[in-house]
Amino acid sequence: MAAPRPPSSRFWGTAVAATRRLARGCWSAFWDYETPKVMVVRNRRLGVVHRAVQLLILLYFVWYVFIVQKSYQDSETGPESSVITKVKGITASERRVWDVEEYVKPPEGGSVFSIITRIEVTPSQTLGTCPESVRVRNATCKSDEDCEAGQLDMMGNGLRTGRCVPYYHGAAKTCEVSGWCPVEDGAAVSHFLGTMAPNFTILIKNSIHYPKFRFSKGNIETRRDGYLKHCTFHETSDLYCPIFRLGFIVEQAGENFTELALTGGVIGVIINWDCDLDLAASECKPRYSFRRLDPKHTPASAGYNFRFAKYYGTEDNSTSRTLIKAYGIRIDVIVHGQAGKFSLIPTIINLATALTSIGVGSFLCDWILLTFMNKNKVYSHKKFDKMVDPPEQGTGQDTSEPHTTDPRGLAQL
Q1: What fold does the segment set 79-114+191-310+328-340 form as a domain?
Q2: pLDDT in tens, 356-409
């Protein structure tokens, strides 16, 4: 009589047998094939939901994808672009007349330029010693002991000599510095150039090229009758006359010209070239918009200004200069856009996506049918059948599970 097997051996034997059965089941299921079964459910509310979902998906693809987004087209964004600008006009301050060569910086006519509207002039600066500005940190003093010789403040105007001297006006004293004297705060004179500035005209010549479609166009009317000499921009009647009044640009950006001229600011001129190349080339038109780009409500460093100097030689072979702090309106010309043209590949892709997405309605209704309907278990039994291969002839066995179906494969409820 054989001895009984220990419990541990029986446990491991059972585990191995279960593992083998699981492996055989997974291997068998790997080779199963699933085919959809058509089941007609006569339920008006479920049918309304099904058709409504299909209709919404169809409207989305027809209206938004194909009409609005034009997804049947091949597209290209970011055209190659060139911008040439030219400013014309004269203005006057309290003491003199200013022309283009003096108030436009830089003069090359690029896509970014500044029109000076106010200046603070510090004339006749020479290399020497003078009081530091009171605006510089730790510049005020009471005696020479408060001023360290050789100290250089990066925010100051020169190298400190170690002396405490009276300021340009008032009873204050500041440390003496060696540099360009007098410093800006001590002798600057303000001039306003913005009186006639709203009437300055700005020519913005722009041409674009879409290399993928070999399409080029410009924003100027191709006429030989001197059209550009007497026209100004109008969105409907003179779209191809890109000559803008500075006052018009500031107004379209929603700004007050006098305030902007005093503090300075940055205005963006945006040219948008959105072109449907399935249409005639004349339908590809530039669209202009104007917007202030710098944050005007930021208290720190509000507005826009810059400094430059003009140098002169003197009779004693020394050098003097005029320092100018300029406030102005900087114009940034920004060009963007996209072009599209019919292409078979995106059309086929989006049509296939649309047809596939219509099946979402069936998926949603199946979920409602098998989850929330009163007879969901009956529907589940009718919808899912499991069959195995029939036995070979002569075995006398039928391993197929019972199922109910009509000769056409349609189970109707």
Answers
A1: atp-gated p2x4 ion channel fold (2.60.490)
A2: 888 777 777 777 777 767 666 666 666 666 666 665 555 554 444 444 444 444
